[in-house]
Amino acid sequence: MRTTMTSIIGSARICLTKKEKIHPVKTIIARNSIVSLLLTAVVLVCFGLSPVARAVSPSTGGHPVANTAAGNRALHKLLNGVWNIAFGVQALQRINNDSNTAIPSSGNWTVTGNLNTGRVQHTGTLLPNGMVLAAGGIDSSFITSASAELYGPASGSWTATGNLNTARWGHRATLLSNGMVLAAAGVDSNGNALASAELYDPANGSWTATGNLNTARALYTATLLPGGMVLAAGGGDSTGLPSASAELYDPASGSWTATGNLNTARELHTATLLSNGMVLVAGGIDSNGISASAELYDPASGSWTATGNLNTARYEHTATLLPNGMVLVAGGNDSTGLPSASAELYDPATGSWTATGSLNTATSQHTATLLLNGMVLVAGGTDACGLSASASAELYDPASGSWTATGNLNTARYGHTATLLSNGMVLAAGGVANSNPPFTASAELYESGPSPTPTPTATPRPSPTPRPRSTPPPRPTPPR
Questions:
Q1: Which of the residues 93, 145, 237, 302 could staple to 259 if both were Cys, CB 3.0 to 4.6 A apart?
Q2: Cα separation of 2 and 50, whole Å?
Q3: Burial per residue of 200-236, b for 16 or more beta-carbon CB atoms within 10 angstroms, e otherwise
């Protein structure tokens, strides 16, 4: 079966003008051949499929076709020359970026142990024991991986754990209330959308098959609901088109049950559990292109209701629930196909979006992590033209609504994972780097700098208490 799943593995983009569409090339689209790719060597070729290519190429009927893993490897060998040209363009872009680097605030990244397997489009899940589970993805040989490994913060190293039963990428992993991890759907080694799901048990390090989804899907969202069930929504289905279907996984029965459909079929969107128990889905790619629509899922009724539209249509963005109950959406590719620097806030009380401070660096395919101090760390992603991976990182302060540059990543990357550890540090692992092959095994840790210590006000020295003057003894009265 041909798959037309879109992916965010990498983007082959020519940075033209802001008014021109960007045509990402990710593996091969139906109307393209290897020869035509080589003749257009100015295009940075990466791997995967592109939603933008589908949106702006109506002649394909909206059905890009993925290569098999073998085709990807053959393409990689033929395109070495293209990579060399592309990295020259990247070098020029980095020189330009360096001239506009903001002064970072406190906070820095430290290299930690490498993954055993370089990977992208994998998942990273913090386990109850404090370790991080990395599973699946596409490895540095461009093969869909079944491998999984554990990061131990105490040792700073990765250890292999049990393999997935099914190699997959573009899946989602959810930590369940019982401490197990649900890995569901995604794309298999033949490029087909998956309906299978499996559970990881940290106690024995093994995976066990669980009930299949009703709809095969990838690049969807999975949200743990307050009652312990998991909501899977949207994504690209087995036909390669955005899906409106949604379903619930019940850990008690190990089965999936259909729930209300989204009002708008979409993929590469975000889903955020709100403080009121509802789920906010925003943006993504719909059947008409890049979407600004948003909607709310009510677990009590199992239905979706439209809410206010985003100010900026976007996909491959991030959405973060802030401590004040609002949702911060940042970056992503906008309607031009270029990474955006815009950010906005959703207020559940009014159902509306309000612009907030823009990122210092436009980016997409980045990560956003809520830190223990209430700030949001955005790290990596593509650069402003989508030509290469970015090393930039910045912090959003909800109190001021502004972004401040922080320490750069040691390895520029996008399509990576970022996991908040129990000690408050953030682990960034894998992704696409500015290297050949591009899928990196490197990992690093972010540590926030100390909060500024207020300058103590000098305590005035007390005035000395005057010493009492001794009273002279009375002079004797002379006798008369």
A1: 302
A2: 15
A3: bebeeeebeebbebebbbbbbbbbbbeeebbbbbbbb
Residue 101 in tokens = 């680097």
**At a CB cut-off of 8 Å and minimum separation 6, what does 121 contact?**
7, 8, 9, 48, 136, 137, 138, 169, 170, 415
Environment class of residue 74 by beta-carbon count within 10 Å: exposed (0-12), middle (13-18) or buried (19+)? middle
Contact 279, 296 (CB under 8 A): yes
Read off the tokens for 333: 């590719």
Residue 363 DSSP label: B
Of 240-254, 318-332, 431-445, least confident by mean pLDDT is: 431-445
21: amino acid identity, one letter: K
- In this structure, what is the dihedral angle of CA atoms 225, 229, 234, 239, given to the nearest 10 degrees? 170
Q: Is 70 left (phi over 0), alpha (psi -120 to 50) or beta?
A: alpha
Single out the residue of 135, 184, 139 nearest to residue 47, CA to CA: 139
pLDDT band at 385 (very low <50, low <70, confident <90, very high): confident
Residue 123: phi, psi to the nearest 5? -120, 155
CA distance 186 to 235: 9
pLDDT tens column, 130-140? 999 999 999 99
Residue 218, pLDDT above cutoff 80: yes
> What is the reported pLDDT for 446?
98
> How far apart are the C-alpha atoms of 349 and 343, rounded to whole Å?
19
b/e code 146-162 from CB counts within 10 Å (16+ = b)? bbbbbbebeeeebeebb
> Which residue, 131, 130, 169, is CA-closest to 150?
131
d(CA 386, CA 102): 20
Measured in degrees and rounded to the nearest 5, phi and psi for residue 161 equal -130, -175
Q: Tell me the one-letter amino acid at 269.
A: H
**Residue 235 pLDDT:** 98
Q: Which tens digits make up the pLDDT trace of 237-253?
A: 999 999 999 999 999 99
